[in-house]
Amino acid sequence: MQFIPNNDQLMIQISFKLTEQEIYKSLVDTSRSRFITKLMQGFGFFLVAVMLFYATNNIAHGTFVFSFTTFFPLFLGTYLLFLSEITAKMQTPNLIKTKNPFSEKVNVKMDKSSFRISGDSFNTQLAWDKILEIVETRDFFLLKATEGTANVLPKRAFSDVQINEFKILANSISGPKLKLK
Fold this sequence. Notes:
Elements (H helix, E strand, L loop, with lengths): L1 E5 L2 E9 L2 H13 L2 H26 L7 H14 L1 H15 L7 E6 L3 E5 L4 E5 L5 E4 L3 E5 L6 E4 L5 H13 L4 E3 L2
Parallel strand pairs: 6-9
Antiparallel strand pairs: 1-2, 2-3, 3-4, 4-5, 6-7, 7-8
Helix pairs in contact: 1-4, 2-3
């Protein structure tokens, strides 16, 4: 980890390797940052609430019958509520078993013009205007190139100074939408 001020040009350098738990959390956070996931979770919550009201009301009146028409909407609603977690739980073991950029040691360099991310099997440089959105979660900064994909930067790889400098850098660039805390 290194912070290099260079007059007007600010450069932040970090290195990290995601743990299995961080891979899981980053997949969940990336999924939760998507609009469609939020919509599906809202629909799932609605289904669960309606079915619980329906079941409670029928139990109170002594007319409850457990059937497919009761079970399926409740199951579907619960599934939609936890879709991010379920999907990430299924994907994480496969990402770890295969040679995947998620499981490699990663080096990142960021300045006002672009960010560069490299590992054993990849080397990518993107201008900030190619980034759709920068999202801050409790544990990560997500640099989203598309709605469904993100370069994940764990906050633990940054010093406190670098986190502040990264936020200053993010606010000074044009292009990505910012969702910083």
